[in-house]
Design a protein that fits this description.
It contains four helices and twelve strands; from the N terminus they run H-E-E-E-E-E-E-E-E-E-H-H-E-E-H-E. By secondary structure, the chain is mostly beta strands. The protein has a single domain, classed as monomeric porin ompg (Porin).
């Protein structure tokens, strides 16, 4: 879950820097994909948006418990040509468009660890808390046509808790080039053994404390996922968005006592105000 404290720093940054914004008309969104938020309106300089989202999601990886949560939404962005630097929630990053067909991205983000208290039914009792983690995310999308109607995507997430990789394809709906409309992605997710056991493994000590069977997982296929994103501008300032995620776990993960469900799911809707 994202923390509100990070957004206090965002507000300070916006207050100090937004008045320096420069403008250069004539550009559309960096890419017309609804999953890539772009609040710059096609202009060079600073852009800022702030809002809230309501989410209904799994309590933790593999949980069969679901709950609602309210999260901050939006970002501080600075654009120059085909490059955008951004600060969104607990992630600081860059994305750039190259040759109109490659969208490259690099970001440093904060991943909150799992807590025993994440399960209201006390199903994590005895497993202890996993540490928070700073992760590096590298991503590339390759357009398969001139208008980013279809694309391929690859992503690597790495940190001290292990590595995760993603490969997939996507399809955009709608004709607008301002980043609104909707899209759908189908992805295959892979992880190494360190990442797999961080999320789904049970050590001998945890087994003795929890009563769950000791579990050791290897690396490889993790899940098959389906992701849908929607974004719509109500007017020049207000924007509504939505997202739905379904992830179906592989057989190794389903054998872990932590995976009470064979899938993970999330649905969220929100609104942001673009300054």
């Amino acid at each position: 879950m994202k923390k509100l404290t990070g957004w206090l720093l965002v507000l300070v940054m916006q207050a100090c820097c937004l008045h320096t914004a420069s403008a250069q008309d004539g550009r559309t969104a960096l890419v017309p994909l609804p999953s890539v938020d772009d609040f710059t309106r096609g202009k060079d300089g600073w852009a800022f948006a702030l809002g809230l989202s309501l989410e209904y999601e799994s309590a933790y990886e593999g949980s069969d418990e679901f709950g609602f949560g309210v999260e901050p939404a939006g970002a501080v962005q600075w654009r120059r040509g085909d490059d955008v630097f951004y600060w969104a929630g607990q992630a600081l990053g860059w994305r750039g468009l190259r040759a109109n067909t490659w969208l490259l991205e690099a970001a440093v983000g904060f991943d909150e660890g799992r807590k025993e208290s994440d399960s209201d039914d006390r199903r994590l009792r005895g497993l202890g808390d996993t540490d928070d983690n700073v992760e590096l995310v590298l991503q590339a999308r390759r357009a398969l046509d001139a208008n980013w109607r279809y694309w391929a995507i690859g992503r690597v997430v790495t940190g001290r808790h292990g590595n995760l990789g993603l490969l997939g394809v996507g399809r955009r709906f709608g004709d607008r080039l301002d980043g609104t409309g909707s899209e759908i992605n189908v992805v295959a997710v892979f992880h190494d053994s360190k990442r797999a056991n961080k999320d789904f493994g049970i050590t001998a000590r945890q087994s003795a404390a929890s009563g769950l069977s000791q579990t050791r997982l290897g690396g490889g296929f993790r899940s098959l996922g389906l992701n849908y994103v929607f974004r719509h501008n109500i007017n020049n300032h207000w924007q509504v968005f939505g997202e739905a995620l379904y992830e179906r776990f592989g057989s190794d993960i389903k054998d872990s006592p932590i995976a009470r469900s064979r899938y993970e799911a999330e649905v969220g809707v929100g609104v942001v105000y673009r300054f």
